[in-house]
Amino acid sequence: MEHTSLTRALALTHALADAVSHDAWERAAALVNERAALLMSLDADQTPDALAIIREIQRLDAIITEQAMAGRERLMTNHRLALQRIDAASRYQSTGMLG
What we know:
Radius of gyration: 21 Å
Number of strands: 0
Number of helices: 3
Distance between the termini: 72 Å
Order of helices and strands: HHH
Helix content: over 70%
Strand content: under 5%
Largest sheet: none
Number of domains: 1
Structural class: mainly alpha
């Protein structure tokens, strides 16, 4: 991979980390798609400098994965709580109609 492409992949990884840290999931998905083509074009043989950039991308990816999992849990919890509130409002409305 050209050094500029690898540098671009690293920049996209930093942007991805920022998007995930702000729960900007649509932006994160777009960045993943943009970055994927760059990463898929990696050759097996890399220079030491390129390997250092790849290791940094891997390090950031591990952090991003942890943050994404935590974000998913938050979204699931918020969704469950919203469903409970909807159910409570429906029961209240049904009870109010009986009277």
